Every structure is written in C-alpha cells, then in structure tokens.
Amino acid sequence: MTELDAFAELIPLDHGLCVLSTSRRDGRIQSSVVNAGALEHPLQGGPVVGLVAIGGSRKLHHLRADPRATIVARAGWQWATVEGDAEIIGPDDPHPGVGPEALRLLLRDIFTAAGGTHDDWEAYDRVMAEQRRAAVLITPSRVYTNPSTS
Questions:
Q1: Which residues pair with 70 in a beta bridge?
Q2: Coil, helix or strand for 129?
Q3: Which residues contact 103 (CB under 8 A, 6 or more apart)?
Q4: pLDDT tens by residue, 80-135
Q5: What is the domain count for the chain?
Q6: What's the CATH number where 46 sits?
Q7: Predicted TM-score (pTM) of this structure
Q8: In this structure, how many other beta carbons lie within 10 angstroms of the beta carbon of residue 109?
Q9: How far is CA 131 from CA 26, 54, 55, 124, in A?
Q10: How does DSSP classify residue 92?
C-alpha cells in the first residue's frame, strides 16, 4: 500500500479520526469526522481508504449523487489527504459480489483498519445490521501530505 503509507501511518496516532468531505447537490462541501483506515479492496484488490457509515446518513446521500470524496488524517501537525471516488457497499447499496456474510466481515475489517477493537463481535455485528451500516471504500486518485517535520 505504498501510495497510502503516509495516510496509514497517521491512523493509529489519533484513533483513526479523519475528516471526510463530500459534495452537496448545490456544490457546497459537507464535512464530517469519521473513523477510517487503509486496507485492500475486498473485490478488486489494491489500496483503499475504508470507513463505515450509518444507513440514511447525509454522507451516503451525497456520495450516491457524486462519488467524489476527500478524506484527511492528521496527528499533531502532520496530515495526509486522499482524494478519490467512493464506492458504497451495504444493505441499501448491495453489490453482487458482496453478500450478507462478506459485508459483515468487511465492516469488521474496516473497523479494525481504523484501529478499532471489540470485546463482543456478535454485538458489533448486530448493531451494524440494525443501523443499516455501509462500507465506504475510497479508491485513491491523488494522495498528498505536508512535508515531514522530523
């Protein structure tokens, strides 16, 4: 995942907290704080940034209309930005190659890539299903960062 190394290195430094920006229909930007991580795309391979979004969220609504996304990870004064198109896979956005079991495991993979751990994976799975959570996978088209201060 060399093109995402700078992004991935920042994830454990601030609990996977990142700022995701999407476009509203009127062209204005909507930003929100999310937990994200770097992982391999579950179907095509290759590096992606993954996050889990609650069903019915504005970010999902915006990404369905315009898949372009920008996500920034930061820790202290160091930051890395990933721009790319987002793919949504979830109960409201089914993918022919991802059934319910594969989605359950993908949501776990994204959660752990963002630095998450869980004592009760069955409870985690239940909440993800109840909240109609979706996987958002951003395929990088551009990655940039500030110069290292070390």
A1: 21, 83
A2: helix
A3: 89, 90, 91, 135
A4: 999 999 999 999 999 999 999 999 999 999 999 999 999 999 999 999 999 999 99
A5: 1
A6: 2.30.110.10
A7: 0.94
A8: 16
A9: 28, 6, 6, 11
A10: T
